[in-house]
Design brief:
CATH architecture of one domain in chain B: 3-Layer(aba) Sandwich
Helix content of chain A: over 70%
Number of strands of chain B: 19
Low-confidence stretches of chain B: none
Strand order of the largest sheet of chain A: 1-2-3
Order of helices and strands of chain A: HHHHHEEEHEEHHHHHHHH
Strand order of the largest sheet of chain B: 3-2-1-6-14-15
Distance between the termini of chain A: 6 Å
Number of helices of chain B: 16
Strand content of chain B: 15-25%
Radius of gyration of chain B: 29 Å
CATH class of one domain in chain B: Alpha Beta
Oligomer: heterodimer
Structural class of chain B: alpha+beta
Radius of gyration of chain A: 21 Å
Mean pLDDT of chain A: 87
Mean pLDDT of chain B: 91
Shape of chain B: elongated
Largest sheet of chain B: 6 strands, mixed
Helix content of chain B: 25-40%
Strand content of chain A: 5-15%
Number of domains of chain A: 1
Number of helices of chain A: 14
CATH topology of one domain in chain B: Beta-lactamase
Chain lengths: 419, 468
């Protein structure tokens, strides 16, 4: 049993990791910036403040989610400061916004089971957010998923994911009887009823649209993978996974044949050494960084992660692998595993179908996002530009991930039990 | 109802965390198994960047003259400079990110690049001891003497090697034609593709027939094996028929008449030395070459190529006689001929030639110091003295007179080596002062003609410069 006091201890540790990391980077660079330390100290204190606010609002929420998130954001801040010192201030600001969003989500979601009633609103918001990027979106770095409102650059897709998970959790919790039993059989394969098949085809259609129009293989994979696993979660039927996987594969092959952009990505995954200075430049640079880091790493500030393009966003994991070695990159991956495990644990402790599906869906989303980007930069799977949750530089992903965790915290509170 | 759902949650959790575990395994594979291959891949720019981050150490001559140093250019990157340009290009070599490293830059790279640091075995903690500057290397080369030798050779192709016979320290090493390492990257095409082999360090990598310079070794061997003595008289009739198919001749079939060994060496009589070599026989001739270390590598840092010796088991008498006058299948480097002369200059011992005398840390503390080491002792002090006296006669009254300098006794031997590439190569090997030698030189000028006329005066200039 974790005590409230343990959460506080772990948060102090997260703050110390942040201060020690920034100190190491500064010493290696040979210059100390008191501004940076003032900001870091403020953030370390705010971790603790968040702890007290949470425990004041309610007492029984999960006690590992916030500390693990704080350690990951601390590592992210240190690495962003190492790679792009000029972006540190902004990233610190995003973390601060994230912490506020976490509290708001945790507080707002105290009766989260009631949200199931508004499922079509969530669904509509999700679709609108997705389409807004399509209609008003601007292409930055090859992906047309940015929305620019005055000085603010937003990636609405990051938030759309949350709403769509919420919609699915509500939709599936209502229809899961239907999903599980109303089926026909053709040979060995179970064919779901058309009322079930329809949303599956719809989400498949949306994923394909994202893929084709926004050139965003990563987002498409995330949407479709999350939706598919949530359908399995609700029904317990493997046939949905087979149908869905088949559909996605079919669509991907079609897109591979039809669209040059997607084809180039897949080809550079299958054989990066065919064109290491051209099409496969990014993945090859990422592998060089990871390989040069080895087990021990070069030490913070002593590697050359800036040889990788976009290192502070999509490739930040490779920078960690280079400078902190497998010890560092492996630790980060383990932290994600712990976080995902904790979120599933919250799902298991939840008391309503909606809450179970919501927490389960959010766990799947978090896990898949980590797999897609870490798997991408290590050449485990084709590379797609997705943020590494809580670590990559960027506001949308940071705030969205904290909202995700805040909702999970709310579910854990509503679940009323503790691990 | 909810239990069924929770069972699904458990399965999904195992599945998704399982994928994360797979990614973890793959990450470990990349960072452990593939680490070395990725880190050393030629497209990975990190090795160059590491080298560019620290200031490469300086190279000094024996008197503290700077021969190579690094300086930041306008972009903040270190650039290598060579104040002596082509003069020392072959000894020092070059350090280029594009074309690699050679010479001292290569053999001392660990020190110069600051990589010989125990801290690097500590992983990231080792960064605490990472130096900002590489170690400095001091050479045995005397830049002033190098310049004298470089000028004395003029625009001719060839090489000069000068050693201190008492220690083996290389004092000068010139190879022409050369290249200017300052402009290496700019002129690479022209330097590397030149038919004149500009990158070849002829002093240690040029293979030439030694011609008559080898006769000093034959003289010593004949005396050592008691085949002859200083009193025996030989008769030279200008030509000598060996067997049915080979005739050994003097230049213009000029007969030297009745001469003893000393006179034969002074006039470089082919017939006398041909006969002595045939008397020695192939076994004892092979022994002589190994006594003087021709078939034994001497010092890795010199990057020398091995000498080519004839196949002693299958030599006819004619081929034996040819080998004895430094022709036939025998090919040697100028360094090896300087070492041969050094044996007689240094009472029968050959010291191991070396170029690096000292490695110092940037703050001046000495890290490693090198001094003379004996390589071989091929002959006795008494025999060495006899050969030395004969070599003095060569310069005093024989073919090597152009190497003589006023007031100092010089010992030497000329050579005019026939070769398939045109005019004979002009050779001179010798040392001075003869009774207390401070310097031994080997000079070869490719296709220049008679050794006594072309190579001996060059050696004379070097002796004068070194003993001024």
């Amino acid at each position: 049993m974790l005590k409230t006091y343990d959460e506080l201890k772990l948060l102090v540790l997260a703050g110390l990791i942040l201060l020690a990391g920034l100190g190491t980077v500064s010493l290696a660079a040979g210059s100390l910036d008191s501004m940076v330390f003032a900001i870091a100290l403020a953030l370390a204190v705010s971790y603790i403040v968040v702890h007290y606010i949470l425990r004041w609002v309610g007492r029984s929420g999960d006690k590992l989610i916030l500390p693990v998130a704080a350690v990951l954001t601390s590592i992210g801040l240190v690495v962003v400061f190492r790679l792009k010192p000029e972006l540190f201030l902004m990233q610190a600001l995003w973390v601060a916004f994230g912490l506020v969003a976490f509290i708001l989500a945790a507080v707002a979601g105290r009766r989260v089971e009631l949200w199931a009633d508004y499922k079509y609103i969530w669904g509509a918001i999700g679709i609108i957010l997705l389409l807004s990027a399509e209609i008003f979106g601007v292409e930055i770095g090859g992906n047309k998923n940015w929305l620019i409102i005055g000085p603010i650059h937003l990636q609405p897709a990051e938030f759309a994911k949350l709403f769509i998970v919420m919609f699915f959790a509500a939709y599936l919790s209502e229809r899961r009887e239907l999903l599980a039993h109303d089926t026909k059989k053709i040979g060995p394969l179970v064919v779901p009823h058309k009322r079930v098949m329809a949303p599956l085809l719809a989400i498949w259609g949306i994923a394909m649209i994202i893929l084709v129009l926004e050139h965003d293989l990563g987002a498409a994979l995330l949407f479709f993978g999350t939706a598919l696993l949530m359908i399995y979660l609700a029904s317990g039927r493997y046939s949905y996974l087979i149908w869905g996987g088949g559909l996605f594969l079919l669509g991907s092959v079609a897109v591979y044949v039809l669209y040059h952009h997607v084809r180039a990505r897949i080809d550079s995954w299958l054989n990066p050494w065919a064109d290491p200075s051209g099409a496969s430049f990014q993945i090859v640079q990422s592998l060089f960084a990871l390989g040069s880091g080895g087990v021990m790493g070069s030490g913070l500030g002593y590697g050359f992660p800036n040889l990788i393009p976009e290192v502070h966003t999509d490739f930040i994991f490779s920078a960690i692998g280079e400078e902190l070695g497998l010890l560092g990159s492996g630790a980060v991956l383990l932290l994600y595993m712990i976080l995902v495990y904790r979120v599933f644990k919250v799902a298991l402790a939840a008391k309503t179908a909606f809450n179970i599906l919501l927490a389960g869906g959010l766990a799947i989303l978090l896990a898949l996002q980590t797999v897609v980007i870490v798997g991408g930069v290590t050449k485990f799977m084709p590379l797609t530009g997705v943020a590494l949750p809580l670590i990559s530089y960027g506001g949308s992903s940071m705030v969205a991930t904290f909202i995700l965790l805040g909702l999970v915290f709310a579910v854990s509170e509503a679940g009323g039990s503790d691990a | 109802m909810l239990d069924e759902l929770k069972a699904n949650v458990r399965k999904t959790a195992v599945f998704t965390i399982g994928i994360l575990v797979l990614v973890f395994c793959y990450l470990s594979y990349i960072q452990v198994v593939k680490s070395q291959a990725l880190a050393t891949n030629s497209l990975n720019k990190r090795a160059i960047q590491v080298a560019a981050r620290i200031e490469r150490g300086k190279i000094f001559d024996r008197n503290g003259q700077v021969l190579a140093f690094s300086e930041r250019d306008s972009d903040g990157k270190y650039e290598r400079h060579y104040p002596y340009g082509a003069m020392l290009a072959h000894v020092i070599g070059y350090s280029s990110t594009k074309y690699g490293i050679t010479g001292i830059e290569s053999s001392c790279n660990g020190d110069l690049a600051g990589m010989k640091n125990w801290g690097r075995y500590l992983g990231p903690i080792g960064n605490l001891w990472q130096p900002k500057t590489g170690n400095n290397v001091t050479l045995t080369i005397d830049a002033t003497l190098e310049e004298i030798a470089y000028r004395a050779l003029g625009n001719r192709r060839g090489a000069i090697v000068a050693l201190n016979p008492k220690t083996g320290a290389v004092l000068a090493m010139v190879s022409k034609p050369g290249f200017n390492p300052e402009n290496l990257e700019r002129d690479w095409e022209q330097i590397s593709s030149s038919p004149e082999s500009k990158l070849l360090n002829r002093g240690v990598q040029g293979l030439y027939p030694p011609g008559s310079t080898l006769k000093v070794m034959i003289a010593e061997s004949a005396l050592a094996e008691k085949i002859t003595d200083m009193k025996q008289t030989f008769t030279c009739e200008g030509a000598w028929k060996i067997g049915n198919d080979y005739e050994l001749t003097e230049e213009h079939r000029h007969a030297h008449g009745k001469i003893n060994l000393e006179e034969a060496l002074a006039v470089s009589c082919n017939i006398t030395f041909g006969k002595l070599t045939v008397d020695l026989g192939s076994k004892r001739l092979a022994d002589s070459f190994s006594r003087y270390g021709f078939n034994r590598p001497v010092n890795m840092e010199l990057e020398e190529v091995p000498v080519e010796l004839p196949d002693f088991k299958h030599l006819s008498d004619g081929e034996l006689a040819q080998t004895g006058i430094g022709q036939g299948g025998l090919l040697v480097t100028p360094l090896r001929m300087a070492m041969l002369a050094a044996a007689f200059a240094n009472n029968g011992s050959i010291m191991k030639p070396y170029v690096v005398s000292k490695v110092t840390a940037p703050d001046g503390t000495i890290i490693e110091e090198f001094s003379g080491q004996e390589f071989l002792t091929p002959t006795s002090p008494a025999l060495a003295k006899l050969v030395r006296q004969m070599m003095v006669a060569v310069v005093a009254e024989g073919t090597g007179s152009a190497a003589g300098i006023r007031g100092i006794k010089v010992a030497g031997k000329t050579g005019t080596a026939e070769n398939p590439h045109g005019e004979p190569h002009a050779w001179f090997i010798g040392f001075a002062p003869a009774d207390d030698a401070q310097i031994v030189v080997a000079v070869i000028i490719e296709n220049a003609g008679a050794g006594g006329e072309e190579a001996a005066p060059v050696a004379g200039q070097i002796f004068a410069g070194a003993l001024r």
